[in-house]
Design brief:
Strand content: 25-35%
Number of domains: 1
Distance between the termini: 54 Å
Strand order of the largest sheet: 2-3-1-6
Radius of gyration: 17 Å
Shape: globular
CATH class: Alpha Beta
CATH architecture: 2-Layer Sandwich
CATH superfamily: RRM (RNA recognition motif) domain
Order of helices and strands: EHEEHEEE
Number of strands: 6
């Protein structure tokens, strides 16, 4: 039972409220979040919208997938769980100098 949708291809100026307002046409939006890059504070061009019911989420896919949103064609599909990624080694070695 998937009620959370992935929204890709968003304009970089899109904010949470704008996303929520647009997708509320399909049903009750419980949350809408545009993903922001931690380093730059800028949008990454995608986000997530969660609906109250699976039927509303399905309706949103039908209504919005492939449509124009702020001048860009967006991709809307059911969100998948985040895949486990290997931990990063933060011990430096950023390419400065030589390590012999």
């Amino acid at each position: 039972m998937v009620k959370k949708l992935y929204i890709g291809g968003l304009p970089y100026t899109t904010r949470d409220e704008e996303l929520k307002e647009a997708f509320s046409q399909a049903g009750t939006v419980e949350s809408a979040v545009v993903i922001i890059d931690k380093m730059t504070g800028r949008s990454k061009g995608f986000g997530f919208v969660e609906f109250a019911t699976e039927a509303e989420a399905d309706r949103a896919i039908e209504m919005f997938d492939g449509t124009d949103f702020g001048g860009r064609s967006i991709k809307v599909n059911k969100a998948r769980p985040m895949e486990e990624r290997p931990k990063r080694d933060n011990r430096g070695g950023g390419g400065f100098g030589r390590s012999w």
